[in-house]
Amino acid sequence: MTVAATDDVTESRLLLAEYDRIKEEQKTRIGFRDNLLYFTLAASTAVLAITVHSGQAHLLLAVPVICLVLGWTYLVNDEKISAVGRYIRDQLGPRLAELSGARGTVFGWEIYHRDDASRTTRKRLQTVVDLFTYLVLPMTCVTAFWCSPAVQSLFVIVSLAQTVALALLGWQFLRYAER
């Protein structure tokens, strides 16, 4: 019985199964990534509300921590989403086209949607939103802390380390932004 099952396995079927699995992974990562943005804003808003209510300015330094952890997770997922698309365009599609003898592009959507005239503008605007959420918002909190009467040397050291880490995260966002 296992011999009959292996007769049905072809390279094309394996590649199509791989395509289905990585598209499912991509879909899951897109949902997770998009929810990270909302969760970051909600968590930051909660910290800001607690800070205002308590009057403890050093709590503002929780926002950079939130943004660093969730921003890095967002960035990693975004890169993997793009990597799946590149893999399909550059590896999987051409291999299936060769095996099937297809004359045109296999998985044409992976190329077609990238030729949209508004894509570059949308990608740039998304980068601005990402930088605002994961860099400007936390740096605003750090700056507000620095301007508060609660400034203490330990918290200043923490805030300076956060500033460096946020700068690195911002650089990574710019580095990985698709053009």
What does the model show?
The protein has helices at residues 2-7, 11-54, 62-100, 109-112, 119-146, 153-176. The model has no long low-confidence stretch (mean pLDDT 90). It is an all-alpha fold and 179 residues long.
Roughly how many Å apart are the termini? 51 Å
Largest sheet: none
**Spatial shape:** elongated
The Rg value, from CA coordinates, equals: 23 Å
- Strand % is under 5%
Low-confidence regions: none
The residue fraction in helices comes out at over 70%
Order of helices and strands: HHHHHH
Number of helices: 6
Mean pLDDT: 90
SS elements, strand count: 0
Assign the structural class, choosing from mainly alpha, mainly beta, alpha/beta, alpha+beta, or little secondary structure: mainly alpha
